Automatic annotation (TrEMBL):
This is At1g61320/AtMIF1 LRR domain-containing protein. Residues 94-358 form the At1g61320/AtMIF1 LRR domain. InterPro entries: LRR_At1g61320_AtMIF1, LRR_dom_sf. Gene3D superfamilies: Ribonuclease Inhibitor. Pfam families: LRR_At1g61320_AtMIF1.
Length: 402
């Protein structure tokens, strides 16, 4: 890190300290470690470049050398103090900061909303990794004047995130939370279009109904939910899912290989304008034994699936299955989707390469292997096509992608 920052300091001096005949810097991407005295060498260069109008748009990532699992509460508080000291010493940085990435910070002793929304008036993109408010407090964001359009959280162990007002927010992503119930809620988010939620449910996670989270949203067109091979953290529901009525793309990833897939039809029936349905099957024997203590057994989803009456998804064009195997539950699911989508153009069945650990265990043969369950050759693929289309009238092309 010291060598990297020493090199960066030299480059920054050359790049920022000398007058630039070609004019302003349209955008500067900068990743720094605030170690030793480098903050007091990089900071003045940035401030001067901003003050004289050379630098207009700054994408700043303040890194930390520690892995998430190695961070203590004291270290996260110290990192917060270092970051706050940098911004306090060089407030000009706030003026053109459009993207900010922070790592391993506890905001318990700082006013997080003042720092991120009142000071960073030009901020469009915020990424927080392993950041919290201490004691899993609820983070309430009420920033009607904020320009923030993208909010990404990675292993931020909050009590909950309440987005009370972020009028420009378009994309929200949260990877890993420890909330027992719904991890977030929305109020005034008229621009919100994309949500991505990724989490392996621990044994303390009791789940939540999706409509509880989406209740006050009006413009969602893309949703990705990733269960990472554990039990579903969605509780069964049906007609309450009115927030899906404008959905165009739905991705359900990390679904345990032994789960019945028919429960997903409840979400499909609630999204009449859906165009792309994307399913990823999770099968990683290499992780099953390692996760037994932290994660509960995986109960098969018990959602009440309405019987098929007539085609309901009149706009759906593509169904994609990643990790396809010609298992009964997958065949039955695909046939059910084909019945519901009369103009379905493509069913894409994709092989999913095993991870290195699974391959070392010898459980999943490599793709070229004769023992691989993915259909190989024209005969096996024709057999799958016949199983899928027998008694089902559908124009869909069945494509095998190995």
């Amino acid at each position: 890190m010291d060598e990297a920052m020493s090199s960066l300091r030299k480059v920054a001096r050359s790049f920022l300290a000398n007058p630039r005949s070609e004019g302003a810097i349209t955008k500067l991407h900068l990743k720094v470690y605030l170690i030793n005295n480098y903050a007091y060498e990089i900071g003045p260069l940035l401030s001067e470049a901003i003050d004289i109008g050379i630098l207009k748009d700054l994408d700043l990532a303040i890194l930390d050398e520690k892995e998430i699992s190695d961070c203590t509460d004291e270290q996260m508080l110290q990192q917060a103090s270092v970051v706050n000291g940098f911004f306090s010493a060089y407030p000009s940085v706030f003026h053109c900061l459009t993207r900010l990435s922070l790592y391993n910070i506890c905001f318990a002793e700082l006013d997080i909303n003042h720092l991120l929304f009142e000071c960073c008036k030009q901020l469009h993109h915020l990424y927080l990794s392993n950041c919290d408010l201490d004691d899993r407090s609820v983070w309430k964001i009420d920033a009607p004047d904020s320009k923030l359009s993208v909010l990404q959280l990675n292993v931020c162990l909050l009590g909950r995130l309440d987005v009370l007002c972020l009028p420009k927010l378009q994309h929200l992503e949260w990877d890993t939370w420890l909330c027992a119930r719904a991890p977030l809620s929305f109020s005034v988010v008229p621009s919100l279009k994309e949500i991505c939620l990724i989490c392996a449910a621990s044994n303390t996670n009791r789940g939540f109904v999706l409509s509880e989270v989406l209740n006050d949203t009006t413009s969602i067109h893309t949703i990705k939910l990733d269960f990472q091979g554990e039990k579903l953290w969605l509780q069964p529901e049906g007609k309450q899912l009115t927030a899906l009525n404008k959905l165009r793309k739905l991705s359900l990833h990390g679904i345990f290989v032994e789960f019945n897939l028919l429960w997903t039809l409840v979400l499909l029936d609630a999204a009449p304008f859906l165009e792309i349905f994307d399913i990823e099957i999770w099968e990683h024997p290499c992780q099953i034994n390692d996760s037994m203590e932290m994660y509960e057994e995986r109960p098969n989803p018990s959602w009440k699936v309405p019987k098929f009456a007539s085609p309901s998804n009149l706009y759906m064009k593509e169904l994609q299955i990643i990790g396809f195997k010609p298992l009964e539950q997958q065949i039955e699911f695909i046939r059910s989707v084909m019945q519901r989508a009369p103009i379905l153009n493509t069913v894409l069945l994709k092989y999913d390469d095993p991870c290195e650990d699974c391959e070392k265990m010898g459980i999943f043969p490599p793709r070229p292997s004769r023992n691989c369950m993915f259909p190989k050759g024209e005969d096996e693929q024709d057999m799958v096509v016949n199983l899928l289309k027998d008694g089902v009238s559908s124009p869909a092309r069945i494509i095998f992608d190995d």
